[in-house]
Amino acid sequence: MDIFNKIKESMGPIGQHMKQSHGYFSFPKLEGEIHSKMKFRGKEVLTWSLNNYIGLANHPEVRKADAEAAKEYGLAYPMGARMMSGQTSKHEELENKLAEFVSKDDAFLLNYGYQGMVSIIDALASRNDVIVYDSESHACIMDGVFLHKAKGGKSFVFAHNEMDKFEKMLGFATKRVQETGGGILVITEGVFGMAGDLGKLKDIVALKEKYNFRLLVDDAHGFGTMGETGAGSGEHFGVQDGIDIYFSTFAKAMAGIGAFVASTEEVTNFLRYNMRSQTFAKSLPMPFVIGSLKRLELLQNEKQLRENLWTVVRALQKGLRDAGFDLGVTESPVTPVYLSGSIPEGTNITMDLRENYNVFCSIVVYPVIPKGQLLLRLIPTAMHTLEDVEYTINAFKAVHKKLIDGEYQADTIAQVQ
Hints:
Blueprint: H1 5-9, H2 18-21, E1 30-31, E2 37-40, E3 43-47, H3 60-73, H4 89-101, E4 106-110, H5 113-124, E5 130-134, H6 139-150, E6 154-158, H7 163-180, E7 184-189, H8 201-206, E8 214-218, H9 233-237, E9 245-249, E10 259-263, H10 265-274, H11 276-279, H12 286-301, H13 303-322, E11 335-340, H14 343-356, E12 359-360, E13 362-364, E14 373-378, H15 386-404
Helix pairs in contact: 3-12, 4-12, 5-6, 13-15, 14-15
């Protein structure tokens, strides 16, 4: 059988809608300056789909640093992987400053967040070790767990943020490692990117006194947004010392490319020499490194940016809740709006928002969430204004009334010309 035959039969759960959705719902093109308002299909839309939390993407100092570094170094330097010929003092400087910021002994710079997390799990967990992880963990964590299981390792998943279930899984894991002689790695997130709720870091850290495990936290959405200084969810809860391995990406609050992992010097050095995604990959180009140094500097020193973000977050979430919308249990800038409806209704709501109200936000439908539910996901940033918030709330009120009145009912996904 030709391996391509299955492609003819099925493009996958999301790909099956490709003909109707490509270029509009999937792979849309947002053009122009990265800001709260951008161009979509030739007209300006109010954009709530960019993880540019504190507005660094187009910050003039960031643009200047990026341009000057590209002019001086180009995009090729340094050539080779870090271990072989891709090491520079700037890479080390960024690592040192990141480690200091998140209160860890050392940090290791990674090319990408997704592959970085997969590779961290692969390097840390042997077949004798057991992973315990939250059921709503990001796909990069899930893929790392799948790789661990492919090596013959064992994992236990606990219901999202349910500490009684977590402790039960810890009990199973403890029995397992008593047989294998391995250890336990617990993985959760600081901020869950879909629902916006926070991981139960305080409760998890407290259980370290009772159970013998190490804690890895993916804080992609918490770094730069949570905590008094923006150092993340561990700082927010006051348990940064209890996080054994802290991970974040630059793709959110830093508005850049790359990621990092921070821990003790011993653990970080182990990862430096054993993460296959870094050992066999070209070093992060110098402009990205120098640009990240500037982004980190601004993140730490321009506190007004984070204050602007939270002003918008509070206004948006309060306004939506006051209007009767269900935002779930979000405690972060991530703002999910839950509605009841079919996939065709969700499609028509999204089109109406974009075409008639000029509001661009992402929609999430089955199979990512249960059938009969719709999720409109808003990402506030420091670049949004209170006028943007007011306009969006009014637009949501209007489309919600249309949904209740049945105006979005349709048998098939609407065709976009």
